[in-house]
Amino acid sequence: MIHISLPATGEEEWQATREPLMSGWVTQGPKVAAFEKAFAERHQVPHALATTSCTTGLHLILAGMGIGPGDEVIVPAFTWVATANVVLYCGATPVLADVDRDTYNIDPADLARKVTERTRAVIVVHLFGLCADMDAIRAVLPAGVKIIEDAACAAGAAYKGAPAGTLGDAAAFSFHPRKSVTTGEGGMVTTTDADLAARMDMLRNHGASVSEEQRHKGPRPYLLPEFNLLGFNYRMTDLQGAVGLVQLGKLDRFIAERQKLAERYRDGLQRLGWLRMPEFGNGEHAWQAFVTYVDPDSAPMPRNDIMEKLQQAGIATRPGTHAVHMLGLYRDRLGCSDDDFPGARDCDSNTMAIPLHNRMTVEDVDYVIDTIRSL
């Protein structure tokens, strides 16, 4: 089976875990701090804080910004459900905006239509590693509306030379195994706002005034810290931090390898009239996934039947992601119908991710190409 994704981990990552395991410091500590520092430098931001996932990172950002009941946060209608869920975690109201069928990212025109006096923020998703159209997004937002980047797929991506994570007020990244950099599970938040970073630092550690490492290495380690905020346990372990450091050092190579595989897919499949290739993003795409669009009017069979044929041929595929408004929770809560967001609806029905990861060979890619062309 050619898997949809596989983590590019090996002996170096295994060896990296030995130091925290042998040191006795396995929770958030020096390895996490080193990972945060390296990540901040790589993404050109002053503050980076490791978390347990991108989901908890987004929650930290919203909580750190004080977003809550009565506030609205705009999110794209085609995204992983967590993007909308974190708004509900804060007691705020998620407002959906449609997406562009070509880029799969939020449509700035529909975003503009969804802004109200209650809008506090927009969560901009850089879906599958392609940064959203930030110039157009900024142009339609009133002053004071925060821009939060859901950069789950976008480690190493850029927009007009500016790294993902520097394009808004704060950003959250994912280190899930389907991402280029993985720590098993895990995430990172970045911001240029020192006050926001300080609040998020406390919130991820139960609202404690100092971290466990700071307390244990301080002059009075026997005393508990102050707790002045209602916080969470969103701390990354030092085992994950050690793995993350190794993975981050390989990020540029990972993206370059994925870019070459993506180009080979494009060259082999772009002449198929029924299968649209993803946008390539002027070389700034991070290629977390290679997501095609099956034209329902000209394809040889429905998208799901194509996926079944590929599965039988030993090729794993997935829908790109899902339309949030078509999920039961949000259909009921927001009173949506499928046709309310036609771009998201069509992407939900017609996108197809094909295998892309750093353990693939050129022969694997050619087999996928040949199999799709034979349909």
Report what the structure shows.
By secondary structure, the protein is of the alpha/beta class. It folds into 2 domains: 11-246, Type I PLP-dependent aspartate aminotransferase-like (Major domain) (Aspartate Aminotransferase, domain 2, 3-Layer(aba) Sandwich); 251-374, Alpha-Beta Complex (Aspartate Aminotransferase, domain 1). It contains 15 helices and 12 strands. Strand 4 (119-125), helix 7 and strand 5 (146-151) form a beta-alpha-beta unit. Helix 3 packs parallel to helix 10 (238-248) and helix 4 packs across helix 8 (194-203). The radius of gyration is 21 Å and the shape is globular. The relative contact order is 0.18. The mean pLDDT is 96. The active site is at residue 179.
Summarize this structure as a short list of keywords or feature phrases.
single chain; 375 residues; alpha/beta; Aspartate Aminotransferase, domain 2; Aspartate Aminotransferase, domain 1; 2 domains; seven-stranded mixed sheet; three-stranded antiparallel sheet; 12 strands; 38% helix; DegT/DnrJ/EryC1/StrS family aminotransferase; PyrdxlP-dep_Trfase; pyridoxal phosphate binding; transferase; PyrdxlP-dep_Trfase_small
